[in-house]
Records
---
Amino acid sequence: MPLDVWLVQIGRKLPGPTSELVFRFGAEHDTIFYPSPLERTTFPLLFRMEDYYADALYEGEELPRLTLELDQALLEFEGEEAALSSLHRLRDVCLQAVREGKSVLLYAD
C-alpha cells in the first residue's frame, strides 16, 4: 500500500476528478522517519506525514513553511539517494501547489 502524493483543489480531503497523482512514497518513507535524524519539534509539518497509513493534508500558508522544512531536511540525508529524491519531489510539489493555488494531500491508499 503506497502513500500517494496528490495535488488537490483547496478544501478537498480526498482525491477527486481534478486531482493529480504526482508520486508515491515507498520504502524511502522509512528512511526518512524510522529512525529519523530529524527533530520532531523542528520539523512539525514534515512529521505530520510520519504515519505511512494515515492521510496528511497541507494547505495555504502551510505549504511555504513545509517547503522551508524540506529545504532543511534535505541537508540531513546526504548519501540517502532515495530519501533525497522523494524530499526533492515533495518540495517541488509544494511549490507547484502554491503556484496553482492547490493543496498537497498525502493519501494512504
---
Amino acid sequence: MEITPDGYFLELWSKNRNGEIVYPYLKTKRGELGKGFDVSPTGKKPDYRLMSPEEFLDLLAKGAFKTQGHIRMQPRNANAAGKSGGFLIPKATMSDRLSEHLRTRVSAGI
C-alpha cells in the first residue's frame, strides 16, 4: 500500500463535518523519531501514538479496530486547519484495493 509523496494514505477515508473527504496522513510528534499515523486503539486522547503504516495495516488486518479506534485524518488541501481530527476507524471507507490487500494478509497469516 502506498503513501503519497505528501504523506497521505488514500486507501482509507472518511468525511469531516464540512463534507470534505479526509485521509490518514503521516505526521511527526515531538520526542518521537520518524513519521507515522496518529492512532488511538481506544479512541481516547491520551492513548494516541504514532504507528508505522505497516503496523497499522497489520492491526487492521487482524481486526483490532472492528469496534473502536481512531486515526487522525485531514483533507488534502492547503486550507485544512480546523478540518481535521480523530475519525472512527470502523466507520471509515476502505478502497477495494485495501480490502483485497487485507484479505490477502489474513489468508497468508501475516
---
Amino acid sequence: MKKESGITPAALLRRPVPKPQDATYMRVFGELNGSRPGGDAFGNIPQQAYESWFNTWEVTNLAEKDRIFMYVKRMDDAFVKHVLEKRAAAMERAKKA
C-alpha cells in the first residue's frame, strides 16, 4: 500500500513485532490452522488437533503443553473473532445491497 500511495497506514505502524521466543507458538498455530472446521461450521482449532501435534512432536511435559496451548489458543481466539466479524460485516453489506 505504501508503494502505491506513499503512505503507511496507521495500523501497520502500530502492528506488533513478533519476538524470537514467540516463533514456536506462531509455528504451532500455522500448523494447526488447517485443522479447524470450515464453511458454516468455522470455529476454533479442535482440542484433538493439539493432542495430535503434541504426540507427533513428542511433547510430554505438562507445563510445556499448557504453555503452548495457552498461547496458541489466544491466537486462535483472536483469529476466529476477526474472521467472524468480517463475515458479519460482509453479510450486513449484502443485506443493504
---
Amino acid sequence: MSPNFERELYQGERVFSPIEVERLSPRFREELMRLLYAGSISQMETERIIVEAIKLNRPNVDYEEFLTLLALVIDDPERVSLMIPPNKRGCPEELN
C-alpha cells in the first residue's frame, strides 16, 4: 500500500451534514477544512475531530473547542503546536 494511500483515496471535497452544520461553528468548520486541504491533518483525523465534536452534544462547538479536540485527536504535541496560531499557544500577547 502506498504511503499516500489515504490522500490518494480522498480526492473530493468534504461536505458537512445538516447536523454538523448545526453543531459546528463556521470558524470550526473553516479551520478544519483549512488544515485538511493544507495537508496538515489527514482525512481520518478530520473525521475523528468531527465525531468528537458531535459527541459533545451541543450546538455551535466553537474554535476554542476545536483547538482542544485537535490536541485530543493528534497524539503528537509538536505537530499540534505547529497548527495552532501563536496567540493561542500560551505566549504573552505582547510577544505575538
